[in-house]
Input
Amino acid sequence: MHFTISFSVLFLAVVSLVYVQAAPTSKRAPGLITFPIRSLHGRVRGIHPQLDFQQQINRAERRLARMTGRDAPSDDHLRARLDKRMYIIGNGPSRLPVKAQTKRYNSAAKLFDSFKEKMASLTVAQKAAFKAKTKSNSTAGSNAGGVSPIDLQAAANGGLTDGNTPTASDSLALDIEGPDVGYVAQVQIGTPPKNFVILMDSGSADFWVGSENCRSEAGGGCGQHEFLGKKSSSTFVDTKAPFNVSYGTGNVAGTVIRDNVVLAGLQLTNHTFGTADTESVDFSSDSTLFDGLMGLAQSGLSEQRVPTPVESLNIANLIPQAITSYKISRLVDGKNDGEITFGGLDQTKFDSATKVTIPNVNERGFWEGDVDSFTVDGQDSGLQGRTAILDTGTTLIIAPAADAKVIHNLINGSRSDGQGGFIIPCTTNASVALTFGGRSFAIDPRDITPLPVDPADPTGDCQSGITSGNVGADTEWLVGDVFLKNAYFSTNVNENTISLAKLV
Ligand SMILES: *[C@@H]1O[C@H](CO)[C@@H](O)[C@H](O)[C@H]1NC(C)=O
Ligand SMILES: *[C@@H]1O[C@H](CO)[C@@H](O)[C@H](O)[C@H]1NC(C)=O
Ligand SMILES: *[C@@H]1O[C@H](CO)[C@@H](O)[C@H](O)[C@H]1NC(C)=O
Ligand SMILES: *[C@@H]1O[C@H](CO)[C@@H](O)[C@H](O)[C@H]1NC(C)=O
Output
């Protein structure tokens, strides 16, 4: 994801309704000199949640098209959908020129400002009523209180919630972006080593950060980010070989370089990866919380045509196998135990009796498994012969349109939103489960309701976390963090297998 990389931070106008103490923080490692700049500039910006949601869907559609080798939906198609969703938000045609909407997130921030004003104008009584309707915390497996105020506040504040110190060796904490929008880790690069915030993506296979000469496609530099180059790193070598990667709505282009990388304390000396000289706004924006992206699918997908970092660690005998394992954490759990582990699995994070290992069925290098069945509250949907690309870089679950309909038909109170998405009650307790390797993995109902349609009514209608993408094979799902928060997930390049297990 990088869909999906879903990276933009959702934004809800509940600023004026803030009363929750468990606020996510934007704190970075102590001593990291960029912290105050980041927290003050840009990195706390938000955009309207509906717009963010549509952007996530758009990115996912492009991503799925790319993954399945199909033509990506055209800009016009995606822009039209974005525009439609803006129309819904504004109760009328968007006041922003279409071009501005797709070119700059700033435009969305403008829209948000007017939205925020609207919310701020709620009366004291309206605010009190809203507060009374909302539980102050959330309970595993129950949506009784609707969307948690912790998520609403995270959406309003943006920023990262730091993960705790890892419990396994060769591991990095995964920080949570906003209300479970994406997952990033800190990686040290160059000489002297500098910290870079990197999005960890099981759905792509290139590793890059911005170059010291980085230019945004929107004009200007690449925002409040760390950059890599000769000026800041004495070990930096530019091979000048070009690369270009397209993700979701964004793309980067640059050259293949070599420099030292430290990943969870493991030293990759003279490692080959990329620096971006050109970034689309998805990456160059100040509101993008990460400095680069690490693709951890298989190197067959690499546009740079080099081994992924985990493959390089294995080639250098620093880890026994090219295994990457993920504990994707959920903000409202308050555990902050997100973690990525290289070379093995963190046995403390899952119940080993529940572990299943299945073959990777994707020949191009994505991580894709057969799904035996889909159930809702234990009832079989009848869907068979489906596969799922498991993608930490995708926030939502994107299903073929017909399949998404089948699943939602089994969820009480659901309806189409007319845009390829679905509306479900924010208080739904429906348990949607996917079976892999004979074991059923249920999605916590809280994950199916990521976003209220009306920010002032978190117990009313919600956008469903399962949406439809019309560009995939009709049997192929793109399964992101909405699902992956509910399982321990591990990939093994040497064996070409995927493992899933129930979390402890
Ligand atoms: C919910 O919040 C109350 C206080 O606000 C706290 O005592 C309780 O432990 C919380 N419950 C959960 C499940 O976090
Ligand atoms: C990279 O590829 C994208 C999509 O094909 C294209 O729009 C963009 O211009 C390319 N960028 C560079 C610098 O080659
Ligand atoms: C880095 O790797 C390249 C390609 O393998 C090699 O040509 C070069 O000598 C290496 N540099 C150092 C400092 O080891
Ligand atoms: C969901 O479960 C909770 C707790 O069991 C219950 O109070 C609530 O009514 C249920 N919601 C729905 C829509 O069934």
Remarks:
- The chain has a mean pLDDT of 78.
- The pocket of 2-acetamido-2-deoxy-beta-D-glucopyranose (ligand 4) is lined by residues 142, 144, 427-429 (CB under 6 Å).
- Residues 49-67 form the longest helix (19 residues).
